[in-house]
Amino acid sequence: MATPNPTLPDRDASAELGERLRQADADGTPLRIVGGDTKAFYGRPVQGEALSTREHRGITRYDPVELIVSVRAGTPLAELEAALAEQGQMLPFEPPHFGETATVGGMVAAGLSGPRRPWAGAVRDFVLGVRLFDRQGGSLRFGGEVMKNVAGYDLSRLVVGAQGSLGLIGEVSLKVLPRPIARASLRLSMPLDEARRALAEWGRRPLPITAAAWQAGVLHLRLEGGSGSVADTRRTLGGDDLDDGYWEALREQRLAFFDAEDERPLWRLSLPQQASLDLDGLDETGMLHDWAGAQRWLRSDLDAETLREAATRAGGHATCLTPGAAEPFTPLSPVLAKYHRRLKAELDPRGIFNPGRLYPEL
Amino acid sequence: MNIHYDARLDGDLPRRDKAEVLADLQRAAPGLTLLHREEDLRPFECDGLSAYRILPMLVALPQDLEQVATLLGRCRALGVPVVTRGAGTGLSGGALPLEQGVLLVMSRFDRILEVDPDARTARVQPGVRNLAISEAAAPFGLYYAPDPSSQIACSIGGNVAENAGGVHCLKYGLTVHNVMRVEMLTLEGERVTLGSEALDAPGFDLLALINGSEGMLGVVTEITVKLLPKPETAKVLMASFDDVEKAGHAVGDIIAAGIVPGGLEMMDNLAIRAAEDFIRAGYPVEAEAILLCELDGVEADVDEDCDRARRVMEAAGAIDVRQARDEAERALFWAGRKNAFPAVGRMSPDYYCMDGTIPRRALPRVLKTIAELSEEFGLRVANVFHAGDGNMHPLILFDANREGELEKAEELGGRILEACVDAGGSITGEHGVGREKINQMCVQFQPDELTTFHRVKAAFDPEGLLNPGKNIPTLARCAEFGAMHVHRGQLPHPDLPRF
Fold first, then answer.
1. CA distance A346 to chain B (A)
2. Is residue B61 included in any domain, yes or no?
3. Which of A74, B320, B328, B467 could be a cystine partner for B215, CB 3.0 to 4.6 Å?
C-alpha cells in the first residue's frame, strides 16, 4: 500500500512514462498501472511490472471561468478537489476515493461515481478530453479543453472505466460546476416499497434532490440548489435532519452496512431504478439502495451465476467487490466480447496495458 | 481541395454493377423497398449540407430489422459501401451518398416504442423525430433535453450519429449524456446492446463511442433516452452591449458567479439585424451584441438567479437588460435566435454555417480574426454563438451563382475552423465532421491520433464499408492537404512539419 507523499513536486513525467511503454511494448512486458493503489480490489489482479503514474502530476490548467480543469493522472484526487473548492467549484459526480492516495488517473480509469450520479451524471459525462499514452509511448490527445467537441471518435470517454486496458491515461480535462448555494439532508422513515413509489413520483417533478439512499426502513435524501427551493422542499418533505457527512460515509463505504468484518462477498447491483429483483433467498429489504435504487449493495453468499442471472433479468448487472473474486464483472455477451477483444487487439496488440484486469482475455 | 470522395486520397472502393447489386438485394430481401431510378434517387442526393450532391447507386428503405440485417449481409458479401441516413438534416454531409454505395434510409423506423414515466425513459426507433419524443413525454411532465435547432425534423438516430447538441448543452449536455442504451446491428449482422437501462453496463463504454461515430461503426436500430422533469419555470434576460468584447466578458462573469444558465446565447449586430428584420422579436438593432440568458428551474431559485445575472451583466457594461415579461415574449426572444439561420438566409442567396468551438476566454480574439478574414475574403459573416459552452456558428454569406464564391466561402470557413483549433478549440461542437470538415481534421489531429481512430474503425468494420470517407481522413488526404496549405503559407507555423 502506497503512503501519502504530499512532497512530490508537480512534474511532467511524459518522457519517462513514454520510454517505459515503448520498452514494454518492444519486450512484450505486461504492465500493472498503479496510481494511489486504492482501487486494486475493483477488478482482477494484474500480473505485470508495476508502472506508477504518481510522478506525473499537477494541475496544468484551471480557469474557473471556463468551468474546465486539466490535470495530470498522478495528481492526488484530494488535491484537485481542494483546488476546485477554493474557487467554489466541484467535481459534480463526487468520485469515491477509497484512500488518501487516490489519484485523478485512477478515478478516470475506474470510472466510479458517488451519490449524486443519477442527477448530475457519471465521471465519463464530465470528461472532456484526455492525453493518452499509446503503446509506442506517444502522447495522443483526444477531445480537448472545450465543452463541446464532436471531432473524431470519442476516445476520451471510451477510456473511462476501461481500467487502463486501452492505454495509459496521462492527463484529463474535466468539466466542473459551481458548488450549490444551499444544501440540506434529511431522513424519512418509510418501508422500501413506499420509498420506491415516492422516488418515482418525485422524479417526475423538478425537485432539487441530488442523493437518495434507502436502508433498513429509512430513506436518506439530500437537497441541493438555490436557497429558496431547498428550503421549500425541506419543509414540504418533513422528516428529521441528517448530517451531511452521511453521503461521504456512503460514498467511501464506511457505513456500518459495509462492515469489513463480514466475510460474505460484497456485491454491487446496477439496475434500472424501479426494477424488482426476482430471486428466492434474496431479501431486498436487507440491501442498501443508493442512487434512488439504481445502485444496490448487498452482502451475500449466493453464487455469482444465480445473482447475475437475477440482475440481468431485471435489466442490469452485478459486480463483486470482494478482492480475489474470480470474475468481478458480469461476463459480456459473446458478440460484445468479440468487439471488446478486437478493440483491445487494435489498440494494445501485445497486451501490455493492465492485461486481464477487466476480463481474462482483455 | 474538393471534398467529394476521391479514391486516390480516400482509398479504393469496389465498384459493382448496379443492376447486379439491385437484383441480388431484391432476391435476398423480397419485401425491401429499393429505389434505383434516377428520379427516385434524386431526393436523397444530399443531406442538410446541400451544396454537395451525389446520386447514390441505390436507396434502401427497410421497415424491419431483418431487412436491415439482410441488406448489410449482402452489401458486405458484395463489397458495396453503405451510408446510413436518418432525416437528412445533418449540416456536415455525414449522410452524403456515395455513387457506388447503397444509401440506407432509416426513416421508416419511426415508432415510439415505450414511454416509462416511472423510470423516466423513452424507448424509440431511430427514425423518430427529436421533438416527437418530448411531445410523447409531455403528458407526464417530462421531456428530452437535447434540442438541436432542427428538432422538428431531425431524427434521434441522426442525433446519436452526430452527438447532436442544441442551445441547452451547458446545463443539460449533449446527446451522449442523455442516451442510456442503443441497439445496434454490426456490419456482420449481429445485434448488440450498448449501455443499459441501468446507469452503467459492464465492459468498455461503447455507448459513448457510438455517439458521434457518424454511422461508421454500426447501424443504430433502437435508442433508449433519458427524460427529465420539465423545469417549473424558465425566464429569459436579453442584455444589449455596445461592444462584442464586453458581451464576451459578461458570459464569463455569469459563469464565474456560479450561475449555470439553461441557455446562454450571443448574436452579433449582423445576426441581430437579420433576425429582427425576419421575426420582429424586439431585438435592439443598434446593439453590437446581445446576450440571451435563460434561467430555468424552481421559481424561487430562478428569481434569485435572474437578479444575480442581471447585476452581473450590468456590471459587465450592458447598456440595457430586459427580462421577458411573459411566456409569449420569452418565446419571441427565442424565436429570433432559433430563426437566425433562415433570417440570415434572407439577406443573402446562400450561407455557409460553421460549428467551431473555443475556450470562452478566446472569444474576443477569435471574433477579431473572423472579422479580419471576412474583410480579406470580401464575404460578410454573421455570428451566432452558443456562448455558454463556447460553440460558435459563424454564418458566411455568399452567392453560389457567382463564379468561385462557394469555393471562397469554403476556404474562409476552413480558415475560421483553423483559428478555432489554434485557440485551443475544435473544428466541430455539434454538427459533426461528416465530409464537410474532413480536411480540417488534419489540422486538429496528428497522424498517430488519426491512426488510432482508424484502428477503432477497423475493430468494428475491418472492410471499411460503413460510411467510408467520413469523419476520419486518411493520412494520404492529410499529406496532400498539408502540402497545399503550407504552399499557400496559410498555416500559422508553416515551418512545422505537417503531414
1. 6
2. yes
3. B467
Q: Percentage helix, strand, coil, to 5, in chain A?
A: 30, 25, 45
| Confidence at B496, pLDDT banded by 50, 70, 90 | very low
Indicate the pTM of the whole model.
0.95
Contact B209 A178 (CB under 8 A): no
β-pairing, B102-105 vs B82-85, is: parallel
Determine, yes or no, domain membership for B481: no
The reply to whether residue A317 touches residue B198, judged by beta carbons under 8 angstroms, is yes
Residue B87 shares a structural domain with residue B117 = no
- pLDDT, tens only, B195-251: 999 999 999 999 999 999 999 999 999 999 999 999 999 999 999 999 988 998 899
Inter-chain contact A152–B425, Cβ cutoff 8 Å? no
The answer to whether B175 faces chain A, any CB pair under 8 Å, is no
B11 lies in the same domain as B96: yes
Q: Chain B residue closest to A227 (CA)? A: B301
CB A45: neighbour CB atoms within 10 A?
12
State whether B258 and A118 contact (CB < 8 Å): no
Mean pLDDT for the stretch of residues A288-306: 95
Which of B160, B168, B178, B204 is the best mutation test for A, with the most CBs of A within 10 A?
B204
Chain B residues in contact with A148 (beta carbon < 8 A): 165, 169, 174, 357, 386, 389-391, 426, 429-430
Look at residue B488 and tell me whether its pLDDT is greater than 50.
Answer: no
Cβ–Cβ < 8 Å for B84, B95: yes
Q: Please give the pLDDT value at position B492.
A: 38
pLDDT at residue A302 above 80?
yes
Give me the domain span that covers residue B325.
Answer: 233-339
Q: CA dihedral in degrees (A208, A214, A219, A223; nearest 10)?
A: -20
Q: What ipTM is given for this predicted complex?
A: 0.96
pLDDT-above-70 percentage for chain B: 96
Instruction: Work out the pLDDT band at B345, boundaries 50, 70, 90.
Output: confident
Indicate whether B485 belongs to any domain: no
Q: What residue in B sits closest to A165 (Cα-Cα)?
A: B204
d(CA B295, CA A131): 34
- The answer as to whether B169 is a domain residue is yes
Which residues numbered 287-346 in B keep a CB inside 8 Å of some CB on A?
297-305
Of B229, B247, B267, the residue at which a domain comes to its end is: B229
CB contact under 8 A, B426 and A271: no
A63 or B485, higher pLDDT: A63
What's the helix, strand, coil split of chain B in %, to 5? Answer: 40, 20, 40
- Which residue among B229, B246, B268 closes a domain? B229
What lies within 8 Å, CB to CB, of A166 at 6+ separation is A132, A158, A159, A343, A344, A347, A348, A353, B204
- Any A CB within 8 A of B213 CB: yes
**Predicted confidence band at B434 (pLDDT cuts at 50, 70, 90)?**
very high
> DSSP letter string over A64-100?
GGGTEEEEETTSBHHHHHHHHHHTTEE-TT----SST
Interface of B with A in 389-418 (CB under 8 A): 389-391
